[in-house]
Design brief:
The protein is an alpha/beta fold and about 190 residues long. It contains six helices and five strands, in the order βαβααβαβαβα. It has a single domain, classed as 3-Layer(aba) Sandwich (Rossmann fold). The protein is globular and about 50 Å long.
C-alpha cells in the first residue's frame, strides 16, 4: 500500500458557502486512503511585497503558510474564475508560496487543478491560466483527467456532498489519478 500523502488544498474563493469550497470539501471526503486532503486558508495572507523578503521582515502569516506548504507532499488548487483568470487571493497565495525564486515552498510540488463554475464554461480560463503559472513554478501538474465542473449548483450540496453519481465516479477517478501522479513524480 502506498504511503498516505499530505495534500494541501488551496481554495480560490473566500466565501464560506462558495461552490469552490464545497467541491474542495467533497474532494476531501472522496479521497482514497492514500491521500489526506487539508484545506489551507489563504484569505489572511498579507499581499505579497518583495521588500518583506529582501529586508527579512517576513509576516508571520507568510511564514506559517510557507512552512505548511513545504511540509505537504502535493498541492491541489480549486479555483473559480474571475475575469477569465484566477481570483487575486489565490494569485497572492501563489506569490507568497513561490518565494524565494526556485526554492519556495511550491517549487517541485506535484499539483492538480480543479475549476468550478455555476456557468457552462466551468472556469476554463482560470484553469488554463493557473496551469501557465504552475509551469513557471516548476510544479509538475497532472494533465489528465482535467477537471472543469460547470453547472456546479446541481452537482454538490451545502455540506460538500456530490449529488450526481456520475460526477462522484469521475472525481474519485481523478483523485486516484492524482494519487498515482504524486507517487510517480515524488
Amino acid at each position: 500500500m502506498p504511503p498516505v500523502r499530505d495534500v494541501v488544498v488551496l481554495v480560490g474563493s473566500l466565501r464560506r458557502a462558495s461552490w469552490t469550497r464545497r467541491i474542495a470539501v467533497a474532494l476531501a471526503k472522496l479521497a482514497p486512503p492514500s491521500l489526506k486532503l487539508e484545506i489551507v486558508e489563504i484569505g489572511e495572507l498579507p499581499l505579497y511585497n518583495q521588500d518583506f523578503d529582501d529586508e527579512h521582515r517576513i509576516p508571520a502569516q507568510w511564514q506559517a503558510f510557507r512552512d505548511r506548504v513545504a511540509r505537504a507532499d502535493a498541492v491541489l488548487f480549486a479555483t473559480p474564475e474571475y475575469n477569465r483568470s484566477v481570483p487575486g487571493v489565490l494569485k497572492n497565495a501563489i506569490d507568497v508560496g513561490s518565494r524565494p525564486p526556485r526554492a519556495g515552498a511550491l517549487n517541485n510540488k506535484p499539483a492538480a487543478v480543479v475549476s468550478v463554475s455555476p456557468g457552462a464554461l466551468a472556469a476554463f480560463g482560470a484553469n488554463q491560466h493557473l496551469r501557465q503559472s504552475l509551469v513557471f513554478l516548476n510544479m509538475p501538474t497532472l494533465q489528465q483527467p482535467e477537471v472543469y465542473l460547470g453547472g456546479v449548483a446541481s452537482l454538490v450540496d451545502a455540506d460538500g456532498n456530490i449529488i450526481k453519481e456520475e460526477t462522484k465516479k469521475f472525481l474519485v477517478s481523478f483523485l486516484e489519478s492524482f494519487a498515482a501522479w504524486i507517487e510517480k513524480v515524488r
